[in-house]
Request: fold
Amino acid sequence: MPMKKILLMVFLSVIAINCISQDDKLNIIVIGAHPDDCDEFAGGTTILYSKLGHRVKFVSMTNGDAGHQSMGGGALAKRRMLEAREAGKRFGVEYLVIDNHDGELMPTLENRLKIIREIRNWKADIVITHPPDDYHPDHRNTSILVQDASYMVIVPNVAPDTPPLKKNPVFLYPGFSSPEIAVDIDAVFDQKVYAVSAHESQFFEWLPWTEGTLDKVPSGREERLKYVAEWFGTVSETEKACLKKWYGEARAVKVLHAETFRYAPYGRKPSEEETRKLFPMIK
Reply:
């Protein structure tokens, strides 16, 4: 897609905050371990939320200061924070990077209280985070922290400096191999790719280096967007089956790109009717 059209899509997503009334707005917070994690597993869905006028916040629990082959420490942390800030603009969301060291995140009380306060301050209706069985220790510990905070967000005597929520949010993991909810993101896939590509140190340096493909990374802007798009691939058969449940077969078979989610076992599982209200982009 031409860059001018992508920029127009970003602009429209920002001004779309007047699409719905204040009372109907949903508050969504996505909590990842590193800058770029939220973008990958929920970026398209959150663009759709933003376009409908809902409020979205990305939180990275670490500053990403270890994930690079030739730089690290404060210089890398600063670079990744700037990349996250730019990605947030392109997504149309607020982006917070917490200053914990990459690769050293632990499920401490201090970190749990940070998450409790973030969820409360955002008045979250939906919280999306990593599954607990993820490959990366920072991902797993982020998941544990969110789970440990999930009930405490309504307990007034925990983190009493921040008013508690009146009810627990709905907690979700990415669906991966066992999706319960599927979102068609074809209409915003190019914008997701453009936003994710702001994380240059990850997608064009670190991740290709870990896979031994650094020499295959293109240098041109359009070629780089295509490169990131290929990173995400297309829908799997499992995702397509879930799409059929929510969109019907006629539309589901046409979808090329989707994001899927499943309910965390420690939270409540809404009815299909409520789920459609929580995911208003599903038509």
About this structure: The first strand starts at residue 27 and ends at 32. Residues 11-22 have pLDDT under 50 and may be disordered.
